[in-house]
Structure to design on (1110 residues):
């Protein structure tokens, strides 16, 4: 019989050969083979082509269960029973993934492949897009070992008609652990040092500030080799301001850290890492671009009150590069962290007074509109900036060069007249020609100084904007649960659910607040930088022209 | 029988429907009808199409004479015998003319049409191109009334095998009167005040400077009406610095003056008048452009040692606008001036020591190369400037507008977040957006300030460069005659011819010297003006950006 699958998310085809799929749409697969992360099949509109394997779950009605295209989810809810699905070729390295197309990378290393010499091993890393599944990583809420279950009163899962589990078992709400937490299924030991406080600030809930703020610089990467130069990689020198001890990290370390953070903090927007590139990764342009991207990333990390303080990030920043044992120890500890997903919410300490959930809903809805609009506008601004950049590097440069050549040309014909009174003018004209050619070069070099950084900033924010739908989804899920529980006052856990929804809401609003604050800070700084660069650019042009003008005084 | 014509000059077709003709080529005409200055016919290569009637002479072998397409030349050598050629539709207003295509206008008014209310009466004005016939105007060397014949020793025309008349009776050398002068056929009364001195300067012969230099401003023209507003024309207010008495002149007065000067000074480059336009001549842009052109023209006139002092120009500058009688008197006097054409050379007083004619030849050849190259380069520079101008007014403006809109767009989405700490940033972003839109406008407006004046200057020089081939031709003709006379020492007039050739050479070199001096002066001034405008332009941009930057300090 035909092999069928159900779409878990919307996917919009962007390239020839791809087909679009709509959430819940039933698709016919040609085979179970996953090629480079893609299935081939036909959608309900009869279009045939490729779509991401991780966006669908195969329907096996005769076996009575369905399996998400991504093996990880199956791990949680459907312990693998030895059935060897072709898409499980990723094995243990599976992170929630989308086939390579564009966007930012995430990877989940393991000790086994950790020492791989290549930064960009395609079998251990994948490219994520702005798709809703990006932020999920495997998290296995421990149902046993429930030592403490703060806020859930130690309650185990209970289903009722009104406050049951989400029917879509693979929604972000479910995967983030949000549902499990709201339903009181999360449990774990939360030490004092693990607590994350949300305080009530002037503009609503906000993360308690890091009492020991620090920054971290990233040096130009150096090329390192292994195995007598057979294998090489780039190493970045990091210098955290609070330790003043330099450490060296490779891109894959950043990548591993990123994966840890994403699974650890379901309602925190972890900044995306700069784009990775399979080829030419030792080329100067790419190295420079990636370093700038990593600096932006690092600035966002160190300025986040929660991310900056978390263990895994501190381990990354402070563990000696030469102490391999200490590194592996910290690495394993981080990978075994039980306060991920649902349990993350156990660590949140909300302000004393609970929030008005209706007000929360309105704020979150407002923010949803904001992110949607900002995302749209950024796309448009990016197009404009890229075009303006291109025009300056080509058209503007060409025009000023041509004008320079025209003045040179006039100067050259004037040189045919060798009379004394003409000489200085001829020299001045030649100089003017050269000046305009230089100005053309200025135009060509300028975007790197001013438009590129704006573009880098927009990229960081596009990453955040791609994160927020999931964060909002978790809060919405919690709110829905709270509303359902209130409708039916008989639900014994209604109060607890409301309380846990409050925790999720506080965390979400704190994160939104943090987003706005850093946005205002970043865009102010970036616009100032842009304008300063532009001013200095036009001043350099003016100086060049004044130099040329001066030549005529002697003519 | 087929009507045939002989090409007097090369004509290169530039538009569909036109055919190229080569000097001396025999053409077959379809008819004698001149349509808008064009004949239709077939050239010797079998190509059919249009060519300028004034470039050919009709061959009427059965009548034993040939008539140049232009009725004027026929006037000189073949007094019209009442034969009504179709191309004589121009009647008395005929000046040497080329059909309208491009270039500068020349016209020769008459009392009859003087009071015509239209500046641009197509029956009294024609458009000249850079063709060798442009500079010729009707000049009838009076063979009788030879009161004095300075330099020719009172000799009348004499022909010999070696120093005969030019076979091409219509060459510039002939038409300018150069040949007649060299052969001693020129005669006229030259008063002391008519004498034009060439002195030996540091760099060779030069015109004696005007001991009373002056300038003349041209005000914005005002629209005047006649016949109760039925007819209207533009009137320019002129203010010569040496009289300080304002006079009003219309374009047709300039046009008339131009025609007088061209016939009066065969080896002086009379600056071309700004282009005339049949329609839209009251439109602001055109008025502004023409006024700027007239200012350039006037500057060249007042700074020329010979042109600035001549009677007809002084009459134009000083005759009261309201004294119609005085005006007409001066007008008639100028039109009857006998020191035109060949007789002009009678007025030249050369330096005491005659020039080395070989050196003259080498200088003139060098200058010929110079003008040819400069003309070519100016064409290229003009294309570049026009394109740069257009780019700034369209592409550059658009790009800066688009960037402005992008910043606005970001500011707009930021306004969705109504938090207090965001407000100043939002305002600053909106301001930055507006600033870039303004900068776009600056770019669009700038060419008018800096590139247009360069372009105007180039136009004036294109006019000069179009004049010089004829001037050089006259000198070359004289030199050839001198060489011929030297070859055959028996020619009795050899010494006189050599002396007269020296006079023409002195005048030519003085004019070349003047050209170079004004060129250096003009281009130096124009480049300084251009650079000053550019500097002020980039400073305005910088100021605008600093204003925008300032907004962020408060954000």
């Amino acid at each position: 019989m035909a092999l069928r699958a159900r779409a878990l998310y919307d996917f919009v085809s962007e390239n020839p050969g791809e087909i679009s799929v709509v959430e819940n749409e039933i698709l016919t697969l040609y085979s179970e083979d996953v090629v480079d992360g893609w299935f081939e099949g036909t959608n309900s509109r009869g279009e045939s082509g490729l779509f991401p394997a991780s966006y669908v779950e195969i329907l096996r009605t005769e076996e009575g269960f369905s399996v998400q295209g991504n093996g990880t989810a199956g791990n949680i809810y459907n312990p693998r029973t030895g059935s060897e699905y072709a898409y499980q070729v990723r094995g243990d390295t599976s992170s929630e993934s989308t086939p390579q197309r564009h966007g930012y990378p995430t990877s989940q290393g393991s000790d086994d492949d950790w020492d791989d010499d290549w930064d960009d091993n395609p079998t251990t890393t994948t490219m994520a897009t702005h798709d809703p599944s990006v932020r999920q990583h495997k998290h296995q809420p421990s149902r046993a070992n429930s030592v403490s279950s703060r806020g859930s009163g130690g309650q185990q899962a209970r289903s009722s008609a009104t406050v049951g589990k989400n029917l879509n078992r693979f929604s972000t709400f479910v995967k983030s652990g949000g549902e499990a937490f709201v339903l009181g299924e999360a449990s774990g030991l939360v030490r004092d040092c693990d607590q994350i406080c949300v305080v009530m600030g002037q503009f609503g809930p906000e993360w308690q500030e890091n009492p020991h703020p620090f920054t971290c610089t990233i040096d130009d990467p150096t090329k390192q080799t292994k195995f007598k130069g057979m294998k090489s990689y780039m190493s970045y020198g990091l210098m955290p301001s609070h330790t003043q001890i330099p450490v060296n990290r490779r891109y894959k370390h950043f990548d591993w850290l990123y994966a840890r953070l994403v699974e650890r903090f379901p309602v925190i927007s972890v900044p995306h890492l700069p784009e990775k590139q399979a080829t030419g990764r030792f080329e100067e342009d790419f190295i420079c671009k990636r370093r700038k991207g990593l600096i932006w990333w690092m600035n966002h990390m160190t300025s986040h009150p929660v991310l900056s303080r978390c263990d895994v990030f501190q381990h990354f920043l402070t563990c000696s590069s030469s102490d391999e044992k200490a590194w592996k120890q910290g690495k394993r500890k981080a990978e075994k962290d039980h306060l991920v997903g649902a349990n993350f919410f156990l660590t949140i300490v909300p302000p004393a007074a609970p929030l008005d959930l209706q007000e929360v809903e309105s704020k979150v809805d407002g923010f949803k509109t904001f992110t949607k609009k900002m995302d749209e506008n950024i796309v448009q601004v990016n197009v404009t900036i890229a075009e303006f950049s291109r025009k300056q590097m080509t058209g503007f440069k060409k025009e000023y060069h041509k004008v320079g050549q025209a003045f040179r040309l006039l100067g050259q014909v004037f040189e045919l007249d060798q009379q004394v009174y003409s000489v200085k003018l001829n020299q001045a004209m030649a100089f003017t020609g050269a000046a305009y050619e230089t100005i053309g070069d200025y135009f060509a070099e300028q975007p790197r100084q001013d438009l590129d950084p704006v573009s880098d900033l927009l990229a960081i924010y596009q990453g955040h904007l791609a994160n927020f739908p999931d964060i909002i989804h978790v809060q919405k899920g919690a709110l829905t649960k709270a509303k359902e529980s209130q409708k039916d006052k008989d639900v014994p856990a209604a109060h607890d659910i409301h309380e846990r929804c409050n925790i999720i809401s506080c965390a979400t609003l704190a994160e939104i607040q943090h987003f706005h604050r850093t946005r205002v800070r970043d865009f102010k700084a970036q616009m100032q930088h842009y304008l300063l660069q532009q001013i200095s650019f036009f001043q350099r042009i003016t100086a060049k022209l004044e130099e040329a003008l001066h030549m005529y005084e002697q003519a």
Q: What stands out?
A: Chain A touches chain B through 60 residues (CB under 8 Å). Residues 494-553 of chain A form the longest helix (60 residues).
